[in-house]
Design a protein that fits this description.
The chain has helices at residues 11-19, 81-84, 87-95, 116-125, 180-190, 214-229, 235-250, 258-270, 275-288, and strands spanning 32-36, 40-41, 98-101, 108-113, 130-133, 138-143, 149-153, 156-159, 165-166, 176-177. By secondary structure, it is α+β, with helices and mostly antiparallel strands. Strands 4, 5, 6, 7, 8 and 10 form a six-stranded mixed beta sheet that branches. A four-stranded antiparallel beta sheet has the order 2-1-3-9. A hairpin with a 3-residue loop joins strand 1 (32-36) and strand 2.
Length: 291
């Protein structure tokens, strides 16, 4: 089914409307961002050229960047009308070919079915929910957030946290609760959880030690683990913040060991972060602190 082509400039009004609606009770609106031709986000803004702000090159994960421009992919998605209407976003809306949204930020998961076989499989195995026709198939939208993954089976992607989906209309049907069958797809695709070696060293230290006793450091690590474990959304941002807090307090004196780093990585891994994502978040935190 061919989707209607939006007139350039019309996307901003659609985005403002989306930002004001709810898919679920856990999200105040649908976080939106502009898409350029090819169904991809806009590149980094001039201030972030070369990822000077610390963001990742593929724009999938935010670094410490605080700029208001629509760069860094899904992490730029917002529900704030003042941002959507800002001058920083204005140039993007004038060039945008479509509107995307961050499903996880809206409290939902999109099962992207890319062909007729995938649709047939969903109709046989998944509960009925809201359906949005796409160019090649359908988006099935469920209430609930989970890890995202591509190619969980032939023609099926799962888009929720740390991902974006094109807005192709409201669709039809009632949004159902996220079923275990969808969660199981990503578990099977990723394989069983397993521990991974720490891929970054602890800081070398050399600064003044602030620790009055070993319990001070232990308490800091435990608090970071608890902060990560309690995250229900924006997991990567929470992990980055926890790493930043630990490093800012404990990273300059040499007391932080690879065993401590491994504990933090394990806590992040339990929330779905890969070892690579952990290493990148750690490196961004080190860079942010100038260590």
């Amino acid at each position: 089914m061919t989707q209607p082509t939006l007139v350039r400039g019309e996307q901003r009004s659609i985005a403002l409307s989306l930002a004001a609606i709810r898919f679920s009770v856990v999200a105040p609106g649908v976080p939106v961002l502009p898409l350029r031709a090819g169904k991809v986000p806009f590149g980094n803004c001039p201030a972030c050229t070369g990822n000077a702000c610390g963001g990742r090159p593929n724009m999938k994960t935010p670094g410490p960047c605080q700029c208001p421009a629509p760069c860094h992919g899904w992490a730029a998605a917002t529900t704030e009308p003042s941002v959507i209407n800002s001058a920083e976003w204005g140039w993007a809306w004038q060039q945008a070919a479509g509107v995307a949204y961050h499903p996880g930020g809206a409290g939902v998961t999109v099962v992207d079915l890319d062909n007729a076989d995938a649709i047939a499989w969903a109709r046989e195995n998944l509960p009925t929910t809201r359906v949005v026709p796409t160019t090649r198939g359908e988006h099935w939208i469920y209430r609930g957030v989970m890890a995202s993954a591509n190619a969980v089976r032939d023609g099926v992607d799962v888009k929720s946290s740390m991902s974006y989906a094109r807005w192709l209309g409201p669709g039809t049907g009632t949004v159902a609760a996220l079923p275990d069958e969808v969660r199981a797809l990503v578990v099977r695709e990723r394989g069983p959880a397993r521990s991974a070696p720490v891929t970054v060293p602890a800081p070398a230290g050399g600064g003044t030690c602030p620790h009055r006793s070993p319990r001070f450091l232990e308490r800091g690590i435990a608090m970071a683990e608890q902060r990560i474990a309690a995250a229900t959304a924006a997991v990567h941002a929470t992990v980055f913040g926890a790493f930043l807090a630990v490093l800012s307090t404990h990273g300059r004196c040499g007391c932080l060991t690879e065993a401590h780093v491994a504990r933090l990585f394990a806590a992040a891994g339990a929330k779905g972060e890969s070892p690579r994502h952990c290493a990148e978040a750690w490196a961004n935190a080190v860079h942010r602190l100038g260590m």
